[in-house]
Write a structure and sequence with these properties.
- The protein has a single domain, classed as Ribonuclease H-like superfamily/Ribonuclease H (Nucleotidyltransferase, domain 5), CATH 3.30.420.10.
- A 5-stranded mixed β-sheet has the order 3-2-1-4-5, with helices on both faces.
- The chain is an alpha/beta fold.
- Helix 1 crosses helix 2, helix 7 packs across helix 9 and helix 9 packs antiparallel against helix 10.
- A hairpin with a 2-residue loop joins strand 2 and strand 3.
- The chain is globular.
- It has 11 helices and 5 strands, in the order E-H-H-E-E-H-E-H-H-E-H-H-H-H-H-H.
- 50% of the residues lie in helices and 14% in strands.
Amino acid sequence: MNCFSFDIETVPDVEFGRRLLGLDGINDEDVASAMTFRHLQKTGSDFLPLHQHRVVAISVALRSGDSFRVWSLGDADAGEAELVARFFDGIERYTPDLVSWNGSGFDLPVLHYRALKHKVRAARYWETGDGDQSFRWNNYLNRFHSRHTDLMDVLSGYQSRGRVSLEEMALMLGFPGKLGMAGEKVWDKFREGAIGEIRDYCETDVLNTWLVFLRYEQMRGNLDAAGLERECQLVRDTLAAMQKPHLDRFLAAWPAA
């Protein structure tokens, strides 16, 4: 079984914003501000519509066989088209079960739009049973199927009033949480050229999501206490062996049970 926890980070698609608002010659910061202000006026929210987001980082954690890995797709200077293509190529190659926090509400719709923009092929992801009968009853697109488990959606009982942030859920369960970074800081970090910090932050979100998923699997009866401890130790051992500062900070903030 291959299981693939994922998260994306985005910034305003200022190229689209220039065309939408007729702002040729205006700098990125002002275009982004205009996009946000326009949406705030229309809806009362400054969170841009999903099709106006541009992907700048995708991080994944892959549990396969006896191994666990966490990494960010592509190099730090990889373009959006490459990142999105790599994500869907992973699904094509491994047919993994996907795990996310609000993936149905944010990450996957954004990836749909960006794949469409960049002409990215994603046949396996969009399979619903016409080519592979096993996908008729369990595919990535159905909200209630298990090829993609959106933990925020499932744990809230599919009710918006029951939703909680990944940060608060991670902290409630004794996991490290955001470690000083947050999604609203990504645009500023991107403008500063700090893509490495964004990728590191995305990886810690993936780890928090994966650890919540392990507890969810124990709750469902798919892991006993010993199995849960083995899975957590595998994560600890993997992160320690990678010897990366942001992962070392994550380990330091994750006390042993």
